Amino acid sequence: MQNIQSIQNIQSILSIAKITLKESIRDKIFIGLLIFLLFFFFFCVYISTLSLGTAARFIENTGMLGISLVNLMVVILFGLFSIYREKERNELYVLLNRVPRYAYLLGRFLGTGYILVIFSLLSGAGIFILTWIFGQKAAPELFWAAYWAILEFTLLTSIGFLFYSMSMSFTLNSIMLISVFIAGHSLNEAIQSFVALGRYGSKLHLLSIKVISYIFPNFDVFDFRLAIVHSETIPAGQVFLATCYWLFYLTAVIALSSAIMNRKDI
Description:
By secondary structure, this protein is mainly alpha-helical. The chain has helices at residues 2-26, 28-50, 55-88, 91-96, 101-134, 142-165, 170-184, 187-198, 203-215, 225-229, 236-263. Helix 3 packs antiparallel against helix 7 and helix 6 (142-165) crosses helix 7. The longest helix has 34 residues, at 55-88.
């Protein structure tokens, strides 16, 4: 009986993910983001013509910034806005009467992950083609940028879902998410500074700083931009550790979000 229930829950997760993907593709926002991405490609080429250095390097640098910007918009517009809109339309109550809450959350997360994969690969492929044509450089390592973007922004999506499960409004959730994203890319420098100061203070101060550094999401773990631009090989050990960090952190956040959703009244 338990096995049958588990299979049904998995089917529910996949069905919700599939519905999320279809709804997102049909949404006008999807077309709008594709147009934005196209204009960003033109912007990359334009910037490269103004540069005094290597055109390929400027296209790569600007392009990877574009990958992050587009995926951040995907997280907010498709990951968050869709679930808040579903709640406002009272569709959420119908769904939660048919499937477990964790299945709904996982399905929505997986569907948003599909959209992130689509835009990450499109962005990576576009920058690769522009670098090849206008920069006269074949840079297959740019697809690593797409891989790291998928890990980074699926993790950010899970944090947005955690804020959603805590009954935050869409506006507050978006502001908090952007703040977490910015802070997560400043964490290494902050940790080094705080640890240096902590050595001159109490041991409790130093310990508390280290605990915060482990709890707070560190998006610098996925930042290999310099290595990609300079065509350097990323050590397999770093790839493995960063992927494990993503997997464990993501699992913990999704589990916490599901636990909160199960306990609260919707």
